């Protein structure tokens, strides 16, 4: 009986397992894709956009139907962008809960474990939220334009960008900024109720409070002057037809977003999840 010896030369070669880094390399594009999946898989995202669409188009239809009573000086594009005074809250709240939802479920720990560079997480979430709100807002405004075209007493003059596309473009920019402010408060406060309260306070309550100082005489005029640079007041300036001080308003709304995201980054990198 003959024994057969199997030597190392006759064995089939077995490939060594690939290092983890070779199988999956962390890139910013993959982080953005992950944040997009998280945002689009939430029912609250689509409910929020649905509410914003119903509010925006519904109020636009009411304003268009009453446009003949507003007089000849009423710019028809105002019927498209004016509802933003209400939908801004939906945008800001959506930005806030997109962040605080991760803190409430504990998913933020998994996110920061997978992506240790916390600034990358913030940038990816802000990018996804900003692009999503910009596209959604443009679509909602477009739907409002189509819906109101037969009701406006004076049609929008699309040959004049200053009274048509420019206010709508600034409206898209403003809605995006409101959502990013919500994202900032979400990372700073990390609590759903608190972040929503802060967002509503800045976007809705602060302009009302500032406007009350106009009743106190010239001694408090500086408060109302500064109030023009609050996010919502700056947005109203940008979307107004014929406004002359649009550059300071544009700088103000961008500065609010930058300051909010920088504050969120400072908190995110120094606090434990």
Describe the protein in words.
The protein is 70% helix and 0% strand. The protein is mainly α and 273 residues long. The chain has one domain (28-270). The longest helix has 31 residues, at 118-148. The protein is globular.
Provide a compact summary of the structure.
The chain is mainly α and 273 residues long. The chain contains twelve helices and no strands. Helix 3 packs antiparallel against helix 5, helix 8 crosses helix 9 and helix 8 packs antiparallel against helix 11.
Number of strands: 0
Question: What does the largest sheet look like?
Answer: none
Low-confidence stretches: 1-12
Shape: globular
What is the count of DSSP helices, taking H or I runs of 4+ residues?
12
How many structural units, i.e. domains?
1
Category by helix and strand content: mainly alpha
List the helices and strands and how they pair.
Blueprint lengths: L19 H4 L4 H13 L2 H23 L12 H4 L2 H22 L1 H8 L3 H31 L16 H25 L2 H21 L8 H7 L3 H9 L6 H25 L3
Helix pairs in contact: 2-7, 3-5, 3-7, 5-8, 5-9, 7-8, 7-12, 8-9, 8-11, 8-12, 11-12
Task: Give keywords.
mainly alpha; 12 helices
């Amino acid at each position: 009986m003959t024994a057969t010896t199997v030597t190392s030369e006759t064995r089939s070669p077995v490939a060594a397992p690939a290092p983890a880094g070779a199988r999956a390399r962390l890139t910013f594009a993959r982080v953005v894709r992950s944040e997009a999946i998280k945002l689009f898989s939430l029912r609250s995202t689509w409910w929020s956009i649905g509410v914003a669409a119903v509010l925006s188009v519904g109020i636009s239809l009411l304003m268009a139907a009453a446009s003949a009573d507003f007089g000849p000086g009423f710019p028809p594009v105002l019927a498209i962008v004016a509802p933003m005074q209400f939908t801004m809250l939906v945008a800001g709240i959506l930005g806030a809960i997109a962040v605080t939802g991760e803190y409430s479920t504990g998913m933020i720990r998994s996110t920061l474990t997978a992506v240790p560079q916390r600034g990358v997480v913030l940038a990816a979430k802000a990018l996804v939220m900003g692009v999503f709100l910009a596209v959604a807002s443009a679509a909602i405004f477009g739907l409002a334009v189509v819906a109101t075209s037969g009701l406006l007493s004076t049609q929008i003059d699309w040959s004049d960008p200053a009274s048509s596309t420019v206010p709508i473009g600034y409206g898209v920019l403003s809605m995006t900024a409101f959502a990013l402010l919500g994202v900032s408060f979400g990372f700073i406060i990390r609590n759903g109720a608190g972040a929503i309260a802060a967002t509503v306070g800045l976007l809705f309550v602060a302009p009302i409070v500032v406007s009350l100082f106009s009743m106190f005489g010239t001694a408090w005029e500086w408060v109302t002057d500064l109030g023009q640079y609050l996010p919502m007041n700056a947005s109203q300036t940008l979307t107004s037809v014929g406004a002359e001080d649009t550059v300071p308003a544009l700088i103000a709304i961008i500065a609010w977003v930058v300051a909010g995201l920088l504050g969120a980054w400072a908190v995110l990198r120094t606090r434990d999840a």
